[in-house]
Amino acid sequence: MNLLAGMILIGVDFDEVAAFAIFERLMRGKKHNWRRIYGYNLATLFPLTDHVYSWMLGELPDLEAHLQNHCVPLVTLMCGPFLALFSNIIKLEAAMHVLDRLILAGEESILSIIKHILKT
Q1: Alpha-carbon gap, residue 13 to 91, rounded angstroms
Q2: Which residues contact 111 (CB under 8 A, 6 or more apart)?
Q3: What is the largest CA-CA distance in the chain?
Q4: Are 44 and 111 in contact (CB under 8 A)?
Q5: Which of helix, strand or coil describes residue 4?
Q6: Which of 25, 59, 62, 90 sits at 20 to 30 Å (Cα–Cα) from 116?
């Protein structure tokens, strides 16, 4: 969560008031409730991963079989991209674009990015 707060601060040129308003909207807003992903029980992580898994079964059954054959748990694979908005695997500038999409379109944007990555 600190990483997300830091990314927001960078995105608003360190305007702490604007950063707080955006962060609060992401964490508690009607459209967003991203704080559930950071809770002690990761309440959002598992449903998001289940959504990706269901989609993968229908769209990419060969990839799903490959992950199963190699005992790769999807939750572990998805944890970094969901919690860090990809900033653990891509440059910060690109992760800032992911943050923009999350702010504007909610968790569906993150899911669409993951689906696109898995397809390609």
Answers
A1: 18
A2: 48, 51, 52
A3: 49
A4: no
A5: helix
A6: 25
Q: How far apart are CA 12 and CA 113, in angstroms?
A: 23
Residue 37 structure tokens:
């992903």
Chain CA centroid to CA 118, Å: 14
> Quick check: 114 and 52 in contact, CB under 8 A?
yes
Which pTM value belongs to this model? 0.80
**Residue pair 81/114 in contact by the 8 Å Cβ criterion:** yes
> For every one of its 120 residues, what pLDDT tens digit does the chain have, with 9 covering 90 and above?
788 888 899 989 999 999 999 888 888 866 677 888 887 888 788 888 999 999 999 999 999 999 999 999 988 888 888 888 888 888 988 989 999 998 888 888 889 999 998 898
Instruction: Give residue for tokens 């309440």.
Output: 43
Residue tagged 């790769």 (tokens):
72
Domain extent listing, the chain? 2-119
Token pair 């899911």 is found at: 111
